[in-house]
Each structure stands twice: as C-alpha cells, then as structure tokens.
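Good morning,

Attaching, inline, the backbone tokens for the sequence recovery test we're adding to the shared suite. The designed sequence is right after.
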C-alpha cells in the first residue's frame, strides 16, 4: 500500500487539494487528491517494482515534483514537505 501527505511548511499546515498521480512505466495506476489534512491515506495497493509518484504542489516555482520509487513488500508512506521555493521528501512510517 502507498499512502502520502503534503505539508505546506510556508503556511505551517497541511496542503489540501494537491493532485497526486502514481505511474508504473507510462501507465497511470492511481490518481488522488489530498484531503483537509493533506493526506491520501490509500493511494494504491501495489506489487513490488519501480513506480513514479507525481505531486502537483501549491508553489509558484514547482509545477510538479516527481519521485521514482523502488517499492518492495509492505506499506510505504511518502510525505512531501513543500514551500514556495523548496521541497523535501522521506520515507515515513
């Protein structure tokens, strides 16, 4: 299972309404939008493999943030911290 959340660190809170896409190769597998808490609790249930997670954050600079992930067995939580001119991510729990 892949889940995510987006935090707008310039505002100091969650980023609701952020579109998130999950691809395997060029195939769109899942599409979600963050809720009022900035979360997509269950974006997709996936098999091990290489995936692309694409965020469309609220930023005047970043039009999208794309991550390539090597997913193994188990659950993966991938947060995005975003500000107008910076972003960071990590594997959460």
């Amino acid at each position: 299972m892949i889940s995510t959340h987006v935090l707008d660190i310039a505002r100091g809170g969650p980023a609701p309404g952020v579109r998130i896409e999950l691809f395997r190769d060029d195939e769109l597998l899942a599409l979600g939008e963050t809720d009022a808490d900035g979360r997509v609790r269950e974006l997709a249930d996936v098999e091990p493999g290489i995936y692309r997670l694409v965020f469309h954050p609220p930023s005047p600079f970043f039009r999208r943030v794309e991550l390539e992930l090597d997913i193994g067995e188990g659950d993966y939580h991938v947060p995005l911290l975003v500000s107008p001119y910076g972003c960071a991510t990590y594997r959460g729990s």
